[in-house]
Amino acid sequence: GGESFGFLSVRDALAKSVNTIFAQLNIRVGPQATVDAAVKLGLPANTLGLADNYANVFGTASPRVIDMANAYATLAAGGRRAEPYLVKSMDFVDGSQANWAASPVVQDAVSPQVAADAVEAMTRVVESGSAGGARALGRPAAGKTGTTTENRAVWFDGFTPQAATAVGMYLPDKDGNAQPLQGIGGRSELTGGSYPVAIWTAFMRDLLAGQEVKDFPPRAGIGDGDVRQQEVPVPSAPEPTTSDNPTPSTSSGPSTPRPTWSPTDIRPSDTRSTDTRPTPTEQPRMTPPRTREPEIPAPTAEPPALEPPADGPAANKPEQDRPVANKPPPQPDARAPAPAQAPARALRGQPLATSYVG
What we know:
About 28% of the residues have low confidence.
């Protein structure tokens, strides 16, 4: 917090997790349009907390991990949504392995052009944003990190042209209430760019081993011709005025010009000058306003380690990683496989779901 990024494109705001840009966008398009888009991509309409309000763009709903994987798979598939399903086991009488392929129900959700533009924006999250650790996968990838208020849940939903995987981590107490993810693995707190990105990268590396490295479709650039560059107005200097009948001055002595001040200047009382007293031959000294460029931390070059670091806590906190504020923990899914257990503390729930694209 406390930083100002000035004018940002939606693509840059997505990479840097500048949520105020999306708050403005949600007001402009309307929160119901945001709900409709989420349902089109793959979230069930009855998802807990998915409501028509201006805060929904921050992730106030509680979708299941499998539904998030399916929604991102829709983008990876060029806008084609498939109904998700689970394969529990396959038994063969003679012990042989048969070639088996699913026949999913597929329908158009968004146009290929819309999907291509959304995917291109999400690649920036990996290339220069909060999911920089996913670059270790070594192939084109896109996605978005998420960290709820007080770090009660952390996410990374990512995909390649072949598969989408969602990783969600949360720690419920005995009553099912999510607790802050702090002091785990030697870290002061967890974020979406920490363990979720590391788990996603390790899993996808094995999942895609031996498969062809594919690129995403090129960006379509919908509406680029309608974008107007925002220009900051520069005040012009006042023009001198002349009079045919000048009025003589009534001053009885020499006058000292008064310093001018504008809302963007630092007031004379706030300056650090050591001598502000005027002399007969000079004007009062004023320290010019000081400006400071926002410091944007560089993306993480390596994926965060899965084991506790040997030299104490390590933050590895992604920059302003808060795209899913106030999201309650995902609801248990009766169809999902048994929850995984972390080595040190149980991070219960649905930690990982994968949806194949095809």
